[in-house]
Amino acid sequence: MDLIPVEIGPLNPQVQDLAVGVVLFAACFLCLLPLLRRMNRVLEARERATDGVTAQAERLRALAEEKRAEIEAELAAARHDASRTRRRAEAEGAALIAESRAEGLREREELFARAAARIDADLTTARAELQDHLPRLAAELASRVLGEPVGPETPTRAADAW
Question: Is the model more confident about 136 or about 98?
C-alpha cells in the first residue's frame, strides 16, 4: 500500500517499509543513546577544561601585561637615569677638557718664556764670545776677500803707507 495515492515513482514509500524503518531507527537510537550521553559528557568536560585553560591563559596574559608594563616603566626610569648620568659626565668631561686646555696653555707660555730667556742668554753669551774673536775674524775675512794677509801684525807695504 502506498502512503501517497499518486504515483510519483521511487519517492513514494510503502507504509510497511516506513514502519520497518521507524522500528529499526528506534532500536538503533536506543542502543546508541548511552554512547551519545557519554559523548555529551566527554564534550562538556572538554569544553569546561578548554574554558578553564582559556580563563587561566587570560589571567596569565593579564599578569604578563602587568609585568611588561612594570618592566617598561623600570626601563624608562633607567634610560632617564642613564641620560642624566651621560649629561653629567659630558659636562664633567667638558670641564676637564677646558681645565686641561688652560693648563696646557699655561705650560706652553711657561715653556716659551723659559725658551725665550734661554735664547736671550745664549745670544748674549754668543755676542760676548764673538766680540772677543771679532778682530781676528774680521782680519781673516778681509784676507780672503783681498787675497793677501791683512791684520795688525802684518807688515804694511810702502804703497799703502801714503
Answer: 98
